[in-house]
Amino acid sequence: MNKKYWPLIIGAAIAGGIFIGGNLDFNDSSDRLFTSNSKKDKLNRLIDYIDHEYVEDVNTDSIVDVTVNGILHNLDPHSVYIPKDELQRVTENMKGDFVGIGISFYTYKDTITVIRTIEKGPSERAGLKGGDRIITANGDSLFGRDLTDGDLIKRLKGPRDSKVVLEVIRRGEEQALTFEVKREDIPIRSVDAGYMLTETLGYIKINRFAESTYKEFKRELTKLEKKGARALALDLRENPGGFLGIAEQIADEFLEDDKLILFTKNKRGDIEKSFATKRGSFENGHVYVLIDENSASASEIVAGALQDNDKGTIVGRRSYGKGLVQREMQLGDGSAVRLTVSRYYTPTGRSIQRAYEKGNSDYFDDYYARLDSGELLDPEKIEVADSLKFTTPNGKIVYGGGGIIPDVFVPLDERMQNETVAFLRRRGYISNFAFEMLENDRSGFNDLSREAFILNYQVSDDAVEEFQDYLNIKRKTTVVFVTYKEEIKQYLKAALAEQLYGFGAYEEVLNQKDMMVNEVINLSKGSFQD
């Protein structure tokens, strides 16, 4: 939009802020809340004047979006607006599935190339394999087109139970192959891995708390119990949270009947308490919860519930510090708002919400403040307030006011978690190059079992040099990782494992050299000396 319209937009935003700020009172019924009044009429009339009378055409939808964002920006950092063009993606991500054909793909040399089919999904059942190049979908050519990944996904997705005919080129086949694939509900995994670290210690990693998370978690936990797990490493690092109810269900697996999990309080002082039930299957096992500075919200609910009930051991670094609860509300045009409606408190009564009075920029830059202070390397640098000191039933001191402080501190691994490697991972360069390594010699891995690969396979120095050339020539970057070659090898191996073997292989490779995971293994050995 032309910058000359910004004064107009800001004026509408102020009007909208006055209107909505004066009417968001949840003591009112929905009828009372949305009935007409002079303030609402004023805002509606202004929008109508701009629509019909203003000298030039103006996109009033964008004015409304700016108004809503401006209002929420001044409330708290976690009240957010979700535009209608993003709501479906957000909903699918938190629902835990979407309708599709069940592949992960990479646009390789202008062609959709299958990285891996989803296990037991429609594409796997139809016969597609990693490395297949999809050149048409229902006769519509996808080869050589200047399409974004979003465009390609739209062409492959469709209504549930509808069919798509794919024409595929496969290395070693002289002619194109044809597959008919039925679109189905495809799970979006929120549990990344579940396997045994030792004979008695299981490991489960959760990446978010979606609708499907508890079922995924319970399935993996049951498998590990059958394999002899008496202790569990529950990895919640980098987990931004999700549904509060799902966090309660997972905490319930470890807590005895009637133990308080958390309580919430809204602005009217109404308190709702959540208690554990008898259904937990791991109440007698020891749990180690792995957290870091990006473990937030529902992750902190689980960690706080266990810590305050003297259950298990919290391992890692101080968590994010989000103690606010949001509720999603539809706005009537396909968009929605997630509005903070209450605060939650751990069983001892502490709020772990960080202060946000200095504004959102300062709030979201907290990681860099922690890095600069030295807190991520030295637990003595963690700032605590005596006024926010609480005591667990067994006499352990815990603190509120800014995240969960772990029982056992593990510093940031500055080599595996450095900014250069993080940049390469975020941009997808490591996984994309791993795919090209497979394309050059996919058959060389055919007889290599998952276990043999994880235990014995080594990425060569030549492959690392080729990766450097790939970055400089194909991706036209100036990134140099001379001092991080061993770390690059480990991430390349993990990416290869994920593309070859699927579920959990990536984490299993990285965990071989993970400081926090190794700390948990050592702690668990001490627990079972008897």
Overview of this structure, please?
- The chain has 530 residues and is α+β, with helices and mostly antiparallel strands.
- The protein folds into four domains: 3-74, no CATH class; 97-187, Pdz3 Domain (Roll); 191-413, 2-enoyl-CoA Hydratase, Chain A, domain 1, CATH 3.90.226; 419-513, no CATH class.
- The protein is built from 19 helices and 21 strands.
- The strands form five sheets. Strands 3, 4, 5, 6, 7 and 8 form a six-stranded antiparallel beta sheet that branches.
- A hairpin with a 5-residue loop joins strand 17 and strand 18.
- Residues 87-157 form the PDZ domain.
- One of its GO terms (biological process) is signal transduction.
- InterPro entries: ClpP/crotonase-like_dom_sf (IPR029045), PDZ (IPR001478), PDZ_sf (IPR036034), Peptidase_S41A (IPR004447), Tail-specific_protease (IPR005151).
- Belongs to the peptidase S41A family.
